[in-house]
């Protein structure tokens, strides 16, 4: 199974991925986490170029190709072989991030984004995507609490993030069977339980078997 996590910065993706990995391992599944952009030697080098705070001159077209190049590599080198071996692969961001950030956030043509996404993934897309909904205000609050050392993209302004959210909402409506929106403003444990409910619903496993299998 291939699962991705999406949402704006600080929505809780990494927190939830770690909780889900622990849960699935406890029930005997092998789980691998892929961080985007990254996950291979080549993709990690591309990550450094993309997130480098000094690269303020990067144009939007370069940005989408670099994200997509990193994804093309991780799909073929890592994700497909893991899925073939029966692993549960969890991606910390995947192609929906490109639609939301480079498409809606940067304003690149929807048609170009769709074609580039299809070419990079070669049809390997998640079976299930958890979209953690968070307001720009809450994201900013968490950012300030973390006092994070922000990367180039995390330094974007509120208008950019509002557009990214509009993008996520649009694709969540467009692909309701794959993309499941979850209230990311609840506590981490509540969000985790919502994720498990959806996972079990999707896999058609009765929720009373939860924790037993
Ligand atoms: N449900 C929650 N309620 C409140 N705070 C949370 C919740 N989930 C995570 N946090 C906190 O918010 C911050 C961001 O969480 P996390 O790193 O999991 O988000 P992320 O989506 O992976 O962010 P990024 O996009 O920057 O990688 C952390 O300080 C984390 O402890
Ligand atoms: Mg994270």
Written account of the structure:
The structure is a single chain. The protein has 213 residues and is α/β, with parallel strands linked by helices. The chain has a single domain (2-209), classed as Rossmann fold (3-Layer(aba) Sandwich), CATH 3.40.50. The chain is 54% helix and 12% strand. The protein contains eight helices and five strands, in the order βαβααβααβααβα. The chain has a five-stranded parallel beta sheet with strand order 2-3-1-4-5, with helices on both faces. Helix 2 packs antiparallel against helix 3 (60-84), helix 3 (60-84) packs parallel to helix 5 and helix 4 crosses helix 7. The longest helix is centred in the middle third of the chain and has 25 residues, at 60-84. Bound molecules: adenosine-5'-triphosphate (ATP) and magnesium ion. Residues 13-14, 92 line the site of magnesium ion.
The percent range for helix content is: 40-55%
Shape: globular
Bound molecules: adenosine-5'-triphosphate, magnesium ion
Helix and strand content put the structural class at alpha/beta
| CATH topology category name | Rossmann fold
**CATH architecture assignment:** 3-Layer(aba) Sandwich
SS field, number of helical segments: 8
For the CA atoms, what is the radius of gyration?
A: 17 Å
Number of strands: 5
CATH superfamily placement:
P-loop containing nucleotide triphosphate hydrolases
Mean of all residue-level pLDDT scores: 93
Low-pLDDT residue spans: none
How do the strands line up in the largest sheet? Answer: 2-3-1-4-5
CATH class call: Alpha Beta
How many distinct domains? 1
The span between the termini is 16 Å
Largest sheet: 5 strands, parallel
The H/E string reads EHEHHEHHEHHEH
Percent of residues in beta strands: 5-15%
């Amino acid at each position: 199974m291939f699962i991705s996590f999406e949402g704006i910065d600080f929505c809780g993706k990494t927190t939830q991925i770690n909780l889900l990995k622990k849960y699935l391992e406890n029930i005997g599944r092998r789980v691998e986490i892929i961080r985007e952009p990254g996950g291979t030697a080549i993709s990690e080098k591309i990550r450094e170029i993309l997130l480098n705070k000094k690269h303020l001159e990067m144009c939007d077209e370069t940005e989408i190709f670099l994200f997509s190049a990193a994804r093309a590599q991780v799909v073929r080198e890592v994700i497909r072989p893991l899925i073939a071996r029966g692993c549960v692969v969890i991606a910390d961001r995947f192609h929906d991030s490109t639609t939301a950030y480079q498409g809606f956030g940067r304003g690149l043509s929807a048609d170009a984004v769709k074609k580039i996404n299809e070419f990079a993934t070669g049809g390997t897309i998640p079976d299930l995507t958890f979209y953690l909904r968070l307001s720009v205000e809450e994201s900013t609050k968490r950012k300030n609490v973390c006092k994070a050392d922000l990367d180039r993209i995390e330094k974007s302004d509120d208008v950019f993030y509002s557009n990214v959210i509009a993008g996520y909402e649009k694709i969540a409506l467009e692909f309701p069977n794959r993309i499941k929106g979850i209230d990311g403003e609840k506590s981490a444990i509540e969000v985790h339980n919502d994720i498990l409910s959806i996972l079990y619903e999707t896999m058609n496993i009765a929720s009373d078997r939860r924790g037993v299998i």
